[in-house]
Amino acid sequence: MALLPRLRRFAMSLARHPADGDDLCQATIERALTKRHQWQPGTRLDSWMMKMMRNIWIDETRACSRRGETFVAEEAGMSVGGDGAQEAAVALSDIDRALRTLPDEQREAVLLVMVEGYAYKEAAEIVDCPVGTLNSRLVRGRDALLARLGETP
Amino acid sequence: MSVSPEELAAFADGELAEPRRSQVAAEVAQDEALAEEVRRHTELKAMLGAHFAPVLDQAVPDHLVQTLGGGEAKVADLATARQGREAKRGIPRWGWIAGPALAASLALAVFLPRGGSGHYAGDEVAAALDGQLVATQGVVEPVKVLVSFRDRDGDYCRAFSGVAQSGIACRDETGWKLEYEGEGHSWNGTEYQMAGSGNADLLAKAQEMAAGPALDAAGEEEAKAKGWR
After folding, report:
1. B42 and B125 share a domain?
2. A120 — contact with chain B (CB < 8 Å)?
3. Which residues of A are less than 8 Å from B71 in CB distance?
4. Are residues B158 and B208 in the same domain?
5. B-chain residues within 8 Å CB-CB of A148?
6. What pLDDT is stored for residue B91 in this prediction?
7. pLDDT at A17 over 60
8. Deepest in the core among A17, A109, B5, B113, taking most CB within 10 A?
């Protein structure tokens, strides 16, 4: 499906780790397949799946904080991970680092509009908030990003 | 008149509606600070776009592609997926076809001439396409339906495989129009011998043609009730 690379991009930017991103992507595709009858033909499949992906991510993030950080140790051994000491070795780009510092709601607003190229209205539908809220989250996220990126020469 | 940061962002993203757009454009043209803001916004957008663009060019990992064909592999949550990443390769829904097809491609492949009258499915194939559902059809059918989906025009299409012929047909006002024809399969007494990698090709083709996921059992039933129209 032509959507796959885009879903992957959003998953990776959302999940912060490539491996988690692919898992998230996989979980989204699986959920989409089981729920495909709920998709309304004529509406945008990409928005529908991004929204689903975001929901899975939120559920998972909550579940993870309940479980503690148990999975981090497991992941740390993987070359694709980016935790703790490894983070320094992998040398995340300034952009990744700056994005991580944003609150989730600002980060997703920035990602949906500036990376995925959604119109404000579409992005607002994906994250289930009014367009005005999306707009202000975007601005706050953008300003924080610019400030962060400005700090590092 | 002052321009809020939100409005300015919307302006930079081409999201501002008239008449406000023209007003803001006029402000930006006069005010160097505002113009600088717009420039920074656009630059950041370009930077983020460039930063994540490589993901689009990376090859999508096999297990994700497989997932797309598989509804049976259920992942309860990401933690399970993580634990199982090494062991689990996903169970492709079409594995029962693709697997044997690959194996059979090593065996003697029997190519039969393409059948079908003109560009529409013949009676036998058409009857199967009209009546059979993937979920309920017999293990052995003269014509077996592999998968149903809707193409980009919204027409129902079904990939099928039979002794005389295999292919993909889409329903139009005349009948089942053959969009793609493959070879038939020989019958060895207990199971169909796939000719070459026929079904794998068919399914790949079906995925290309499909606008959205394959129909599930309920979707097929509904489509059948509507006469596949």
Report:
1. no
2. yes
3. 30, 33-34
4. yes
5. none
6. 41
7. yes
8. A109
Name the pTM for this structure: 0.49
pLDDT at B18: 81
Q: Are residues B139 and B171 in the same domain?
A: yes
Q: What pLDDT sits at residue A138?
A: 92
Same domain, B131 and B159: yes
| C-alpha span between B19 and B7 (Å, rounded) | 13
Given CB atoms, is B31 within the 8 Å cutoff of chain A? no
**Distance, CA of B151 to CA of B198 (rounded, Å):** 20
Measuring CA to CA, how many Å separate B171 from each of A38, B143, B224?
Answer: 23, 17, 11
**What pLDDT, in 10s, does the model give residues B163-206?**
777 888 999 888 888 888 877 765 544 444 444 445 667 777 77
Identify the residue among B44, B152, B153, B208 best suited for mutation to test binding to A, counting A beta carbons within 10 A and taking the highest: B44
B183 lies in the same domain as B208: yes
- Cβ A24–B154 below 8 Å, yes or no? no
Q: Which residue of B has its CA nearest to A15?
A: B78
> Any chain B CB within 8 A of the CB of A92?
no
What letters, b where the CB count within 10 A reaches 16 and e where it falls short, cover B90-110? bebbbbebbebbeebeeeebb
| Structural domains of chain A ordered from first start | 1-92 (1.10.1740), 93-153 (1.10.10.10)
B72: closest CA among B39, B95, B40? B95
Structure ipTM: 0.70
Residue B74: which domain range?
A: 60-93
- Domains in chain B, number: 3
C-alpha of B123 from chain center: 28
Residues B53 and B64 in one domain: no
Domain boundary (B93, B113, B148) is at: B93
